[in-house]
Amino acid sequence: MSLARPDALDITTKQKVALAIGIIGLFILTLALFNTNFPNEGLFLTLSLGLIAVGIVIYSREAYLNKLEGIKNDGQWFKSISSRGVWGWIVGVILTTFYIVLYFYPQYLGLGVDGASNTGLISLFDPLSQLLSGRNASQWFVYGTLYTIAILAFGYKFILKYRHNRYQQVRTVSVMFFQLGFAFLIPEFMYVMNNDLPYYDLKSVWPLNYYIFDEWSVKGFLSNGNIGLALIIFGILSIFVISPILTYKFGKRWYCSWVCGCGGLAETAGDSFRHLSSKKMSAWKLERWLIHTVLVFSVVMTTAMVYTYLGYDSNDFWLTRDVFISLVIGFLTLVFIGVMFFKRQELGKDAKYGAIGFFITIALLLIMHFTGTTDQLFYIKSGALRSTYGIYIGSIFSGVIGTGFYPILGSRSWCRFGCPMAAILGFQQRLFSKFRITTNGGQCISCGNCSNSCEMGIDVRHYAQKGENIVRSSCVGCGICSAVCPRGVLKLENDSMKGRINPTEVLLGNDVDLMELVNQK
Amino acid sequence: MEHIVIIGNGISGVTLARHIRKLSDKKITIVSAETDYFFSRTALMYVYMGHMKFEHTQPYENWFWEKNRINLKKGYVKTVQTTSKTLHFAGGDTLQYDKLVIATGSKPNKFGWPGQDLEGVMGMYHKQDLDNLEKHAPNKEVCKRAVIVGGGLIGIELAEMLNSRSIPVTFLVRESSFWNGVLPEGESAMINRHIKNHHIDLRLSTNLKEIKSDDNGKVKSVIIEETGEEIPCNVVGLTAGVSPNIDFIKDSEIETGRGVKVNRYLETNIPDVYAIGDCAEQHEAIGNRRPIEAVWYTGRMMGEALAQTICGNRRPYNPGHWFNSAKFMDIEYQTYGWVFGAKGRPDYEQHFHWKHDDDTKCITVAYHKDTQEFLGINTFGIRMRHETFDTWLTEKRDVDYVMNHLSDANFDPEFYSKFEKEILSAYNNKLQTA
Questions:
Q1: pLDDT of residue A8
Q2: Is ipTM over 0.90?
Q3: Across chain B, what does the average pLDDT equal?
Q4: What H or E segment, with its residue span, contains residue B127?
Q5: Could A510 and B301 be called an inter-chain contact, meaning their C-beta atoms sit closer than 8 Å?
Q6: CATH T-level assignment (fold) for domain B121-240
Q7: Is residue A307 domain-shared with residue A381, that is, in the same domain?
Q8: Contact of B401 with B374, CB cutoff 8 Å
Q9: Is residue A19 part of a domain?
Q10: Domain boundaries in chain B?
Q11: Range of the domain at A504
Q12: What does pTM read for this prediction?
């Protein structure tokens, strides 16, 4: 297929102009990166971000508005950038490099260390940061701004691409709103109101924001009176109360493809790469081991972090180490026994792996409790455990690989292989949720458009062609499989729990007696 | 161990093989000359359009076959000797079977047009047709125009394919309106307009007279029967229907008509030889169905049924309520039960037709004019639930019930506009004025 370079895929003159506009915007950022001193940083920052956004907007309008409404995937496997071609690799390398510098060498972006003022790229963003929160920019502010611009501009593109599909539009407006408001603006305003509060993106739920229960974070919140206390209570409620209720009603999509920032970027800027995820059975196996290992790691790590700053004496504070570790083990055991008792049947073969995960977690917690000292856990410094997680999971996995490898691994490799939040929501979606993708009787023609466009690498067709509903823990409910299906076979819906999983052998439309005979087994 | 040999690795043969494996330990061999592995024929168009790669059209990973002990043999069966139960391949080798299943599908129709075998003339059915199209129509510089002959489902898909690469298309349709042998008038007319909106040069009531060759034996142009007009082109797509792909058994003992003649048990006149899918022809049509059903779903159902018979539980092919689906460029189509176009419509069948103002959505509901029994529905641009209509057809609901409960059958994605109220009020108005 590589020989085929259909001319229809060539972009129009207007799109070339739009690309040029965007590249000029990026070029200004590049100049700043190499320490060009702009006379009026505010003006050039506005110009740069404005040009990037305008370029994307013009490009998208030209791409979609001149055609009739419908599925717009023509040539996605021909274009170099979206089929792991040369451009795909170039963009991948640039993004990956950017992430490595961002996480590990922010000084190269111009971050002023030890009170020195910012230079380079970061100083270009000082005026905007000053405007919003009255302080100079950090590398995270630069990143947050670019991230938000990407979600907004590519979100606009996505809305045009799916302008016949209200589900896609509403969902995209939602991620754009949450990114702009919750991830970007509100934390800045919170800082203005109370600059002692730790950074808190309200929509980022533990274990995604693995640092929320760290000592500095908890102390930061608690030293800020009622508002701080309210925030940390909200953080606890988010994972233990709010998220289970919403996931029960709507599936994990309420978070992963409506609210989450990682998901938001994947669905907008990453949309052109969604089909690159591997649909192989082997990838699925890897996924299940990897994501649950990260989950175990994050549970143990968080427990350990809280554990280290708790005391032994119940006279100081009721939550002692003993009480805390008992609470954690008790809670996990309750969940485990509940699932094994009520949902053993639905788990099937996975029950064994669930049990392995549970017992490993408990064993780790017990080992920790009986061998740990004030600053050592598992015979290593407790801080080292936390920073290992931060570096390997929080930075390398979610950022460098998760986003940097978009053009190679597809847009959701972090969400699929690494995100512990996704693992928890997925576990619940699989067992206690009204959500499913319903298969429309016997209408599937096995064409594979659904599987091809699944960013989570689910082989949707495997279920659809058997007339089975899709109930998979990894499904983020983006709805693209349903959109691209040429036969109207798939529908995301929240319905009753009963009959949600419906294995069939013989499909609707065949001999009624035969269907009953074979399907009853 | 009994050896089941299936000729053809399409949906019928593969469904059969899978079900035999579920039910038994028999030795299974699937023979194909087309591809190494099963792929979804309906998805070939998306490969040309760049939505997918060819490997994505394969519903099972390559390890699947060995894991399930289904042998795959690539080869072209030249003759079948039923007395000795032997297949003779074009390569000279042979294969013994205990039971033989012919599932060779279809081939594009050619009606003896002058020039129909020139280079650049092709159907759009086999993997080889796709390769051929890629060769002759890689882009609009190599292929300055393509002419498609025959207005059916494959024709409009081929038009969509070529359109995706900006290759100008002239679409010759013999009928006075697109696919009106099947679709009622209002729907057919809406699709005509939709095709034209995609800048396709749709020529209705137009026949092909001949295909002209250049000096190298390649297509140069086509001549229109009615007007004598010559249309220069580089590719001609012949999509005037398909017929059973059974030339290789014409000289055998197996009885054939247009297809391989089978009874309701999908058995041929020769013991231990069966036929399923597009190539099977029923002695007598089942209900309103055609004796040869060249449809994905029916092929699959025959596979499901025959697996029972071969594994000792002899069952007839006894399909349930008719259903089908297609997509016309951007407009999805589903049908449940029977809705006839002008051709062959029974006297008792009456229609209610509703069309949305945007000209991309419409439905036609067929009912019995005396008993008011609901007979079937065609829906365009609105997805509907198979299970709901299947139940209503079994329960023999009347048309009023169906119209009043149409929202129960809605299968559109969440947040989509709903049209049931509008449809119902149009239906009630019509009854008042009728």
A1: 45
A2: yes
A3: 96
A4: helix B127-136
A5: yes
A6: FAD/NAD(P)-binding domain (3.50.50)
A7: yes
A8: yes
A9: yes
A10: 3-107+243-310, 121-240, 323-433
A11: 433-519
A12: 0.94
